[in-house]
Every structure is written in structure tokens, then in C-alpha cells.
Amino acid sequence: MTLTAPENSKALTLRGRPMSAPLHDVDMLSDQLVAHYASVLPAYSDYQMTRIQGLLRAATMRGLEMSIKLLDAGLPPTEEDLQGIRALAAGEAKEGTPLDAVLSVANEALTMVQDLIVADADTDDFADVQEGARRFFAMAQMLHTAISTSYAEALRPGTAGADGAATHSLVHTLLTGNNPDLVAQQLGVELAPEYLVLRVALNLQPGGPGSGKLSALEVRRKLDLLRTAFVDRCGSPFLSSLTHRGGAILLPGTPAWDWVADMLRAVGEAAGVEITAAAENSRRQDIPATTERVDELLRLARRLGRAPGLYGLGDLAVEYQLTRPGPARADLVRLLDPLESSPELLQTLTIHIRNDLNRQRTASMLHLHTNTVDYRMKRIAQLTGLDPTRPSGLRQLQAAIVAREFTRAGTPAQS
């Protein structure tokens, strides 16, 4: 691609100062922008971009330098300017980071820089602001082209790491409803007409933090163990897009539910990871809509404190329905109003129900005597008129707790 300077190459100004003035402290601003990415971009944490923080900072510095040249002299990025950004995009392709996640960082940087330079503009600066916007639009197109082409080139067959990255790309394409044929052809994968869509949540430290938070290297090793265990049991190519938090798995056909549940349990044990998953069968063209429902089921299972394992709509049908907004849900929530002034009773009831009314387990979790658990159940019955030790009262209280949890969340499916 040949880059040429725009016809209008004059230095742009705001209030008599160079428009580029707010960008001149490149070191400080680069640090601020990288911190900003970490705080506002879901992709930053989802794909552990702290591992490339140094590369991001270097690319951000080069981006600021390009912006200064663009504003002061109308000079567009050169191929040398774009080398670091191209390398970063190619590296993330091989890591399996989706292209839109990489582009989201570039877009956020461009937005923040433009907001910064025009913050003090007034009506007299309109012409220069307009010209600045035009120059930034042209640069954004160049950046998008550089990132996208470098990303695609890294996925070409025969490129080191391309198969794993292409697998992530194929899964992302299927989940978003875009045409997966080209990526499938690159991988040599024959797409199935149906898939079991799984969304999984991972706990990489089942026993708690213990000696401290896992390092990036330890997280990578855990994920490698996990992927190896999945491939051993499911075969290759294994269609997944997994980060340290979880992600998506697509199993072709309609595998038996018990086999999938046993497989997840065995894989988790092999890798030392707790896996909570929700799943639903889907035709290939319906995967995006199915994914939304399965996401909601997974959030529901986690919000309700369900144990690790595999869940489908049949396992959570009552709870799922109770989370739908409406007058019935509001009535259920009001059943717990008498307990609002006694949070310890509400906490005990919630945990006791999650423990299937096991007194010893509830007492142990709350550091109470079992007699105290019994007393609190009696007190709940007195205050609400519903006895949690009887089936009729238990059903209503359990439904009320589920409804209350999601009413407080504000939406049926928030986590």
C-alpha cells in the first residue's frame, strides 16, 4: 500500500496553539492510555492483554507520534510507522484473540486522542477541527487495513501457530453468525449441520487463592493443560475459544448429555480446573441465538451458586421462568420483606436452601451451631408465615429467593 500526504498539509491549530499540543508528552500519555484500555475494554481482561502491555505501550507511543505528524504536517503513517502495530496484530491472531478485540484497542485509542485534542476548541476553530477529523478518519482506515491484513496473513495455512488461531477465528465466526466457510476451508474442517453449544466458566484455582494469585505463565499452563485434555477426549480439531475466565465450545452433532457431563468432569480433574457449563443443541445457522440463551443459563447457574457441572434449560426451567419480569415475580419478592431487617436470617435461608437443607453443611459454612440453624429456620417461619422445613413453605421461599436475586440485579440475566 502506497501512502501519500493529503493535499492540505498545513499545521492545524486550536486557539492559536498547535492542535497536537496535548499529545506532546508521549511517555505520560502512553501510560495513561494503556491504563485506560485496561479499565474500560472488556477485551483487555478477557484476553489477558497485560501479557502484551509493553507492546501495547510501544504501539500507543508510535500512534501518538503518528498523530502529531498528521496534525502538524498532514503526514500519514509510513510502512515503518505501522510495523509494530502489524506485528502486534499478527501475534494476537496466533494467540487466538478475535480481530474485533484487537481493533477495539485501536478504536479506543483514536477516540481518546481525538477527544483530547478538541477538548478546548471553540467556534473559531471549526475549519481546523473539520480538517483534523478528516485526517484522523484517513489514518483510522490505514490502521484498520494494516491490522486486518496482518491478522489475516498470520492465519494463512503453514504459518506458525496459524491452526490454533484459525480455530479461535472459526468459533468466533460461528458464534457471531458470519460466514465461516473461508476459515473452515483454511482448517480443512467440514462444518456439521448441528452443534452442541457450550458456554463454560472456569475456576483455575478450585481450592482458593492459597499461595496467591496465579501468574500469567501459570494461567497459560493451566489453559494448555485444559485444551490438551479436551482434545484427548473430543478429538481434533477441537472448536473452542477459551480464556482464563471461560468461553465457548462447539461439539459437532448431538452428543449424549451424560457423555458431555462426564467429559467436562474428567477434563476439569485432569487440568485441576473447576468447570461450570451450560449447553443447548443448535442448528449451525441458529448458533448466535442459541449462544445468547446458553449465556443466560450459565449466568443463572452461577448467580444461584450452583455447583460446577453441566446445566441445560431442563435443570433450571423453574428458576429461568422466575427471573422473567412481571407481577408474579414482584409478589414472590414481597414474601421476603419481613426478613429485610434481619439479613442474617435471609443469608442463612439462602445458604441452607443451596445446601439442600443439610444442617451440618450450613452450620459449617456460616460457623454456627446446628441448633442455631434450626432456631433461625423457626424464626423465618414466624416472620414470613412460611415454614422452610415443610415442602409447601420451602417451595415458596425458594422461588422468592430466586426472584429477589434477579430483581436486585435489575435485569433477568445480569451477573
What does this protein look like?
A hairpin with a 2-residue loop joins strand 1 and strand 2. A 5-stranded mixed beta sheet has the order 4-5-3-6-7. The N terminus and C terminus are likely disordered. With 415 residues, it is of the alpha+beta class. The chain has 3 domains: 142 residues; 123 residues, Alpha-Beta Plaits (2-Layer Sandwich), CATH 3.30.70.270; 86 residues, PucR C-terminal helix-turn-helix domain (Arc Repressor Mutant, subunit A, Orthogonal Bundle). It is 60% helix and 9% strand. This is Helix-turn-helix domain-containing protein. It comes from Speluncibacter jeojiensis. InterPro entries: CdaR-like_regulators, PucR_C-HTH_dom, PucR_C-HTH_sf, RsbRD_N_dom.
User: With helices defined by DSSP (H or I, 4 residues minimum), what is the helix count?
Assistant: 17
Low-confidence regions = 1-6, 411-415
Strand and helix order: EEHHHHHHHHEHEEHEHEHHHHHH
Shape: globular
Measured by DSSP, the beta-strand proportion falls in 5-15%
What structural class do helix, strand and pairing data support? alpha+beta
Helix content: 55-70%
Radius of gyration: 27 Å
Distance between the termini: 45 Å
Tell me the strand order in the biggest sheet.
4-5-3-6-7
Report the sheet with the most strands, covering strand number, pairing sense and barrel closure. 5 strands, mixed
Number of domains: 3
Strand elements, count: 7
Protein name: Helix-turn-helix domain-containing protein
Domain RsbT co-antagonist protein RsbRD N-terminal: 29-155
InterPro entries: CdaR-like_regulators, PucR_C-HTH_dom, PucR_C-HTH_sf, RsbRD_N_dom
Domain PucR C-terminal helix-turn-helix: 345-401
